[in-house]
Design a protein that fits this description.
By secondary structure, this protein is an alpha/beta fold. It has a single domain, classed as Glycerol-3-phosphate (1)-acyltransferase (3-Layer(aba) Sandwich), CATH 3.40.1130. About 40% of the residues lie in helices and about 15% in strands. The protein contains seven helices and seven strands; from the N terminus they run H-E-E-H-E-H-E-H-E-H-E-H-E-H. A seven-stranded mixed beta sheet has the order 1-7-6-2-5-3-4, sandwiched between helices. Helix 3 links the parallel strand 3 and strand 4. Helix 1 packs across helix 2 and helix 4 crosses helix 5. The protein is globular and about 50 Å long. The N and C termini lie far apart (about 40 Å).
């Protein structure tokens, strides 16, 4: 209830302030459960990815530092976020997201782990969670403002989804499969960004 209210409220406010928002390839969103992964260059991807995927709700993996105070812990958990220790994740870090997937929910993970605009290093966490949870990965790319100041300039905001990535490769062991799918996710991010750039030229 709180998640839906907060998402709708913030969506209205950001639409008034930021203007145009386009979701491309929404038909590619599969039925839950699945893991949605996105590039992460600012906090705005989190919000707009949530808008783009509704009515589905995203359960976000977030750094544990965001849960330190009593209020933040309450807020983050009511926004369907769950903490992970980025410095020392360990095997337990994937147990909760896998349980969420088994319950038919959508898990959101930013594979880069931190906000970067260049030199994206794809971590295997998202791919591992999807593999263990036996669900596909939905790649997405955000293109738009990176700060509140840029939002007020009312430049076009785009979320573009790619084809779901499935784990149906034959003849690969788990290590090889993780490597192949990690590379596929990264190359999909690059392709989706190129496709968004191409639409700007039309």
């Amino acid at each position: 209830m709180f998640y839906t209210f907060a998402r709708n409220f913030v969506h209205v406010i950001l639409t008034i302030l930021g203007g145009r928002f386009e979701v491309q390839n929404k038909e590619k969103i599969p039925e839950a459960p699945f893991v949605v992964v996105s590039t992460h260059t600012s906090w705005m991807e989190i919000l707009y990815l949530g808008f783009a995927i509704k009515p589905l709700q995203i359960n976000y993996m977030a750094k544990q530092e965001l849960f330190k105070t009593k209020f933040l812990n309450w807020l983050m958990r009511h926004l369907n976020a769950f903490p992970v220790n980025r410095e020392n994740p360990g095997p337990s870090a994937i147990k909760l997201p896998i349980r969420l997937l088994k319950d038919g929910k959508v898990v959101g993970i930013f594979p880069s782990g931190t906000r970067k605009s260049t030199g994206l290093h794809l971590k295997r966490g998202a791919v591992t969670v999807a593999l263990k949870g036996k669900v596909p990965i939905l790649p997405a790319v955000y293109d738009g403002p990176k700060s509140f100041g840029e939002l007020l300039k009312r430049k076009k905001i785009t979320i573009r989804f790619g084809d779901p990535i499935h784990f149906n490769d034959k003849g690969l062991d788990q290590k090889e499969l993780l490597e192949v799918k990690s590379t596929e996710v990264l190359s999909t991010f690059e392709r989706l960004q190129s496709e968004i750039d191409a639409t700007k030229l039309k």
